[in-house]
Specification:
The chain is an alpha+beta fold and about 350 residues long. The chain contains eight helices and 19 strands. Helix content is about 25%, strand content about 30%. Strands 1, 2, 3, 4, 5, 6, 7, 8, 9 and 19 form a ten-stranded mixed sheet that branches. Bound molecules: 2-OXO-4-methylpentanoic acid.
Length: about 350
């Protein structure tokens, strides 16, 4: 096991920040000066290296490129008014990362590498955290199999990396959503609960078709009946119906256990709302819409934070919502942001100081 502090560190000679403004940075386009790289071989993690951000040299037979043993996480770090950096709930992502690793037959990454590596990397690239509302440093830990062989089996070698990207909002405006009845994201017994690369690659055709029809994203439904709500695009989804918040439960293994999902549930309860984690059918949604009982609908995710849904299209039905009158999701976002930017007390112990 790697001892804390036992890192090889090579600093970049020049900072790319000299030529880049952190005003209005789009999601995921720019990367900081450094990255963390750790190799796994013969059952052991080697000494982590923090080095200048650079391309990787990979063999064309690299197992991950052929069979998709690849997982990742999304986490954010924020700067407060005093310039102190905090990471939002990194231990929850650490736990989920190793759940994904197990599902994809990959080795667990130790805390000394995942958490301490992230902390040291951010410490070095701290100037890259945008000090601006709705902006953050997006942290992308990921791991892939690195055997140079094309037999179908778990690899012997893996690479774990962390890269950092200063970022603004993901979906800047309220979304129009297409209820997907043809393609599915996840099925019981599959790996929908894991943050595996294949879940995202497999979702692109449905999103592209929805985009062509004029929608921003799809509402994923269950694989058997196309009737029960699962997720929305790359986000978990919440419906507030008759002042009760409903989000799909995690039991079936088809839903990603989102950290923003969990934070939203906690804050909704703090605000006095009842939260139900349960099956929610499109018929129930349609009935509630017709009866004027849908208060708000929104997606939650690390990249997207909280994104309002202003339209749902299901078969011949178009459900429109006046998001300007909504108060619940905006208040959840306000409370979550106030914690992230250290403007209000972190009563749930969510911040990890860099
Ligand atoms: C995240 O919210 O961090 C995600 O994983 C969504 C996407 C950018 C892949």
């Amino acid at each position: 096991m790697t001892a804390v502090g036992d890192f090889n560190i090579t600093k970049a000679v020049h900072s790319k920040l000299d030529d880049l403004s952190l005003e209005n940075v789009p999601f995921g386009k720019y990367f900081t000066d450094h990255m963390l790289v750790v190799d796994y071989e013969k059952g052991k993690w080697k000494t982590p290296s923090i080095m200048p951000y650079q391309p990787l040299q990979l063999d064309p037979s690299l197992a991950a490129l052929h069979y998709g043993q690849a997982i990742f996480e999304g986490i954010k770090a924020y700067k407060d008014a005093d310039g102190e950096a905090h990471i939002f709930r990194p231990y929850d992502n650490f736990r989920r990362f190793n759940i994904s690793a197990e599902r994809m037959q990959m080795p667990a990454v130790p805390e000394e590498i995942f958490i301490e590596g992230m902390r040291q990397l951010i410490e070095i690239d701290k100037n890259w955290i945008p000090a601006r509302d709705n902006h953050a440093l997006y942290i992308r830990p990921f791991m892939f199999s690195s055997d140079e062989a094309i037999g179908v089996r778990p690899s012997d070698k893996y690479k774990f990396l962390i890269i950092l990207s200063p970022t603004g909002p993901y979906y800047a405006t309220p979304m129009r959503i297409y209820v997907e009845e043809k393609y599915v994201r996840a099925v019981e017994g599959g790996y929908g609960f894991a943050k595996a690369a294949g879940n995202y690659g497999g979702s692109l055709l449905a999103s592209a078709e929805a985009n062509r029809k004029g929608y921003d994203q799809v509402l994923w439904m269950d694989a058997f009946e196309h009737k029960y709500v699962q997720e929305c695009g790359t986000m978990n989804v919440f419906f507030i119906i008759d002042n009760i918040a409903i989000t799909p439960g995690l039991e079936t293994g088809t839903i990603l256990e989102g950290v923003t999902r969990d934070s939203t549930i906690t804050l909704l309860k703090d605000m006095g709302y009842k939260v139900e984690e349960r099956d929610l059918s499109i018929d129930e949604i349609l009935e509630a819409y017709k009866a004027g009982k849908i208060n708000e609908i929104f997606g939650t995710g690390t990249a997207a934070t909280i994104s309002l849904i202003k339209e749902l299209k299901y078969k011949e039905y178009i459900m429109n919502f006046d998001v300007d009158t909504w108060t619940i999701a905006p208040e959840v976002k306000r409370r979550m942001d106030a914690i992230k930017y250290s403007q209000e007390p972190d009563t749930h112990g969510w911040l990890y100081k860099v």
